[in-house]
């Protein structure tokens, strides 16, 4: 089998398409034949060593978290899946491996792919969908009629947040690049601001939830936009921020931890046609490292970058 991996932490030049030995699934795990994988910023953050306190120093290290595919075999204790099932979900953070022909992941990190959702669309759902659902529902307890502000609303997590918030009856506003404002207006946002020009401190409207999906505003700015009992959602996890969150019910730090429950909700939303991430480009596995390097370097492709294994 082949996958994209690296032998030391560093920049895009570290990535190599190489052969690897497929491991057998252990207790509570699945062996999946990957069909498509989607690129996320966390993929290059893991590779450049930003999270090596979690991933360690054993090499080579595989790349890629979000995928869709078919279950090949199951380990002991797996009850929700059988060989032949079509699934989507996430690889294990430390082991990764979605940018490869096969991977082993935990049963709880995967859910069944709805028949109405294509494999390529399903590959894009896990990380953005989990971050949107966890932030809005599990952290903020979003209710119909509430007002949500999404900073970075044109990104993958931003779009997923908009769609899930609207599905749950919320009124959504947001900020993005000027080039994306028309697209966001078509998605039904109440107000769309050019992030380069808007002074968020000057906004008079207050929100029930402010979600900084692009991690570009300070906590103080986000908190200023809140109503009295509102929640500011921070996607940039750092130790001191978790400490702050312990003492403030209005401030929450998010980590994209997959679970059977959350992935199930993401799948339901996708099956209903309420959650779909735009795809900007699909390339073969041999070109996957180049596409990721371009996106990491700032290339805008109008949607998710997706790698096809076949």
Please give the CATH class of the largest domain. Answer: Alpha Beta
- Overall body shape: globular
Number of domains: 2
Largest beta-sheet details: 7 strands, mixed
Order of helices and strands: EEEHHEEEEEHHEHEHEEHEHEHEHE
CATH topology-level fold name of the largest domain: Quinone Oxidoreductase, Chain A, domain 1
Query: What distance lies between the first and last C-alpha atoms, to the nearest angstrom?
Result: 12 Å
Name of the CATH superfamily of the largest domain: Medium-chain alcohol dehydrogenases, catalytic domain
Description:
- With 310 residues, the chain is α/β, with parallel strands linked by helices.
- The protein has two domains: 2-124 and 277-308, Quinone Oxidoreductase, Chain A, domain 1, CATH 3.90.180; 127-253, NAD(P)-binding Rossmann-like Domain (Rossmann fold).
- Helix content is 27%, strand content 28%.
- The chain has ten helices and 16 strands.
- Strands 3, 5, 6, 7, 8, 15 and 16 form a seven-stranded mixed sheet that branches.
- The radius of gyration is 19 Å and the shape is globular.
